[in-house]
Amino acid sequence: MKKWWNWILGIALFCLLFIAIPLTFSGDEKEKLKPMFDNYIQKFNKTYKDNPEEYEARFKYFVASVREIELLNSESRGPEQHRARYGLTKLSDMSKAEYRDVHLSDEKPHKRKHRQNKNYNKKKNNTSNVFDIDDAENDNSSGNSPHNNIYIIIRKKRATLPLKVDWRDKGVVGPVRDQGLCGACWAFSTVGVMESMAAMSTGKLQPLSVQEAIDCAGLGNSGCEGGDICLLLDWLMMTDTPVLADKEYPLKLRDGVCRANTTATGVRVDSFTCNDFVDTEDKILEMIATHGPVTVAVNALTWQNYLGGVIQYHCR
Ligand SMILES: *[C@@H]1O[C@H](CO)[C@@H](O)[C@H](O)[C@H]1NC(C)=O
Ligand SMILES: *[C@@H]1O[C@H](CO)[C@@H](O)[C@H](O)[C@H]1NC(C)=O
Ligand SMILES: *[C@@H]1O[C@H](CO)[C@@H](O)[C@H](O)[C@H]1NC(C)=O
Ligand SMILES: *[C@@H]1O[C@H](CO)[C@@H](O)[C@H](O)[C@H]1NC(C)=O
Ligand SMILES: *[C@@H]1O[C@H](CO)[C@@H](O)[C@H](O)[C@H]1NC(C)=O
């Protein structure tokens, strides 16, 4: 047993040495990445090829990305076919600061406290959509929240979770969308989950208008300059605004005049719950398995060069 263990340890150390080599680039090795960078410029239609200053700056960030890609791939965990994969993306030539400022600043951090334990349900006498996973282990069948107009149903037992749930296979998740330079991740993710919830109850997956959320949502949400998942849900429910079909209110990726129509047909929010799940991520797992897709706000600093697969390491 012990021998076996030492052997494994030996291999692990050997691998570590091996992995460590490409992570420290000497000037020479850096130069060797130039052809790769030129290829990258061509593949992603970058425009700075003839601008020596930007070329050199971008090259520096590109090298940092190549390093990070190797590191993250080497640390990726899980079954081969599912594990997270990292590689060059159109964002690989950005500095971390630039990436953060341009693509990760959508969430309004000062609204975070809003996310604590919110459970809302409009139809107070209809419990079919109500859940409260924080209390899932309690044995009580129902209870009232401290706010007397919010009714919470507490599930009796923690469900036995299936080994695999992929809502995409069930045809209730739309395609990935590109937010471009519009900081509206909060609207994309929330409207995306509304599409899924609507598809699960109607059997028809229909793209809904993210632009409507960008243009209209109040309560401190500010379109392409950022917003908050919970505040958007708050606003949709308080104003009873239906989110229209995407084709009726198409995506422009810039702030525009609100064209919401409260009498039109669309998808309305009847209930939602907003929680902080840091360190209790298994509850998200349960929610996804038993209820459906969820919208999350995460630290995506390591996603700059993410290609696909399930991230099971370096999550935060
Ligand atoms: C680059 O431009 C070409 C021609 O305009 C286009 O076919 C290709 O899809 C573009 N590639 C990317 C990554 O945008
Ligand atoms: C409760 O449900 C009934 C129909 O089952 C409905 O008529 C009534 O308005 C509902 N009450 C509330 C407070 O939502
Ligand atoms: C409760 O909501 C579900 C789904 O939205 C609906 O099918 C059901 O008819 C509702 N029940 C009542 C009593 O309103
Ligand atoms: C159920 O709720 C009652 C009060 O509503 C409380 O006294 C009791 O401790 C609860 N039981 C459990 C298992 O939490
Ligand atoms: C709002 O929707 C209703 C119902 O579909 C429609 O009759 C009305 O013309 C719409 N209003 C606007 C301003 O588009």
From TrEMBL:
Query: Where would you find the membrane-spanning parts of this chain?
Result: none
- A biological process term (GO) from this entry: proteolysis
A single Gene Ontology MF term assigned here is: cysteine-type peptidase activity
All copies of the Cathepsin propeptide inhibitor domain together span 37-99
Which segments show compositional bias classed as Basic residues? 110-125
Signal peptide range in chain numbering? 1-26
Is Nucleus one of the keywords UniProt gives this record?
A: no
Superkingdom of the source species: Eukaryota
Disordered as annotated region, ranges? 102-142
InterPro entries assigned? Papain-like_cys_pep_sf (IPR038765), Pept_cys_AS (IPR000169), Peptidase_C1A (IPR013128), Peptidase_C1A_C (IPR000668), Peptidase_C1A_papain-like (IPR039417), Prot_inhib_I29 (IPR013201)
Q: Does the keyword Transport apply?
A: no
Q: Where is the Peptidase C1A papain C-terminal domain?
A: 161-316
**SUPFAM superfamilies reported in the protein's UniProt record:** Cysteine proteinases
Keyword list (alphabetical) reads:
Disulfide bond, Hydrolase, Protease, Signal, Thiol protease, Zymogen
Describe the family membership recorded for this protein in Swiss-Prot or TrEMBL.
Belongs to the peptidase C1 family.
What protein does this entry describe? Cathepsin O
Question: From which organism does this entry originate?
Answer: Papilio machaon
